[in-house]
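Hi there. Long-time user, first ticket. I'm pasting a complex I've been working with (about 725 residues overall). I'd like to know whether the download I got is complete or cut off, because the file seemed smaller than I expected. Thanks.
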Amino acid sequence: MAEASKAQKMSVSDEVVVSMDSVNKWYGQFHVLRDINLTVNKGERIVVCGPSGSGKSTLIRCLNRLEEHQDGSINVHGIELNNDVKNIDEIRREVGMVFQHFNLFPHLTILENCTLAPIWVRKMPKAEAEATAMKYLERVKIPEQAHKYPGQLSGGQQQRVAIARALCMEPQLMLFDEPTSALDPEMIKEVLDTMVSLAEDGMTMVCVTHEMGFARKVANRVIFMDEGQIVEQNEPEAFFSNPQNDRTKLFLSQILDH
Amino acid sequence: MSKKVTMDNKLAFVRTEDAPILPPPASEAGITGWLYQNIFASMSDFSSAGASIRSVLMGLFSFGLLYVGITQLWGLLDFAIFSAVWSDPDGLKREACWTVEQGGQLPAGWHAACWPFIAAKLKFLTYGAYPADELWRVNLAGFVGLVGLVYVLIEGLPARRHVGILMLTIYPLMAFILLTGGNLDVDYGNVGLYVLISLGLITMARMGAAGRFGSSFQDLSGIFSVAGWLLIVYAVILSVVGVDTSLEPVDTRDWGGLLITLVVAITGIVASLPLGILLALGRRSNMPVTRLICTIFIEFWRGVPLITVLFMASVMLPLFLPEGVNFDNLLRALIGVMLFSAAYMAEVVRGGLQAIDKGQYEGADAVGLSYWQSMRLIILPQALTHVIPGIVNTFIGLFKDTTLVSIVGIFDLLGGVQSTLADAAWSTPVQGLTGYLFVSVIFFIFCFGMSRYSIYMERKLSRGRSH
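Hi, the file is complete. Here it is re-exported in full:
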């Protein structure tokens, strides 16, 4: 067995951050999430993988209510996600999300992108919000771009800004929805490096990604989804070297053999 | 001369020397490049007989168009400026603009504008029948409005935002009092009652938001707060317009000319944008009832001609109102114009909202912004920027549609000109042309101004935001 990376040696506490209990979701007639049970502890790094259309994005989008589940219960940070707008707002304050297409606000500068939510949602004074934003922009290594607009940055830089923007709310949990899928190959590394350093600092993370190198290096659990179900989950080493389910084997052979 | 690097059909190739960076050919840069690309590109191909004929035809066509354009423009300038009669020093009135055949002094065949006619009617065309002693009030309101507007439109002036807020809050009240004289019949007992009720509502909203009345009330606290503040604003407006200003009241029936045009246009423009935004958001709302109401409203007002709206407002509406209840003809027309243009504006804004990527909504949601915050900070700034041409198009259309109020007996600029045409003291063959030319010039100045400002705004807002 390969030596565990620094991130994998981080301790995982017993405190539960996310618990999904028999969650079901439908798009019209289509049963997109089928009986999902998942618990994420504080400090855990979870990678969710699976073929296209398997419901992985839908799964993590349910965690901050970008998608609504119809059955079962989801608790994030001890707060039940239901139709109560206040609960949703409270959860969104504590959960950061990074999207495939960055979703930066193009009409605001990088700095304004990062300070917007702290100022309006956390009611932080502007100077303090800017100081926090600069701290996280330095963390993702682009403080010098603070006064540019997103359109002037490369894809990799934009994605790092998106990570900084989420961090500015000082979230308890970070969700990554295929953060490197829309990037040019030479920019994937800079984003993954940022994510690794985040993991090394003990951030609780749920990542939908096809970057298996990242999963091996950082995750303490890999979840494989297919047709809306969790088919298999395991520690990364065991998951990659000794998959049990046939569908997992097929998937791994398809993404690794080329 | 550098050694030429060749790349034959061999598989292996290694560049040893960079290819030189050369200046562009004359057809790409400089004045010759501009001339070639913009004028001669389509008529300089003489490579074959057919191409030569085409080039010559294109050349003839271009110069033909140029000729027509110049002669038309010359004709207009000649009519309006060079051959026009500019003054009437002897007070001859219509005879100042008569030719020899008609009994005047001007050479036979003279045909140009008769500006003394406009000069004589200028006061009427600007103010209508507004009492002469009170014109300072109109002038003051116009002057303050103009200064405020220019201040708000120029970028980089200090406290621009504050001036803008004053222009949208205090100025309308001030203009209302100056123009009408204020001093409306207001029952101050009612005003006091409104203030009490609204204070109660706001207190309840505050306590509700703090969770004093249980969670179900907490959700309603926003509505209570909005209602409370609206009521307070209403009470403030009532108490201001009720103040005894000792200004002579001027009935809106005495208003006219440019004054009416500007009052109708500005009220319509200022009210239609916020109303249109609310309607557009409502039409895209997840709440079915809100969506239905907004859709019906928009489709109704868009489906009816403005003339019908104005007729309904001025002729039909009084029939439905109880006897004795009667409100101002101009006010009714204003409300009609406002709602009509709001419906158009709503569709323009909706177009902008539809152009916004779903990711922007999700990005705003994910960082925890509320619906109104994400609309105000993220979605609307982008959506409105996209549709500036459409918004200004609607404004310009509205500005010109104000002329329709003359159909319900309100004499705007065009209506004013038309009524002066009946003045036999100025009866000349060019009376009508001069009057309509004057109206066209005034309208053109306003509309062209709006158009140029919108182009400036587009440039400014698109700066640095390339994708």
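A couple of notes from our side: The mean pLDDT of chain A is 90. The longest strand of chain A covers residues 16-27.
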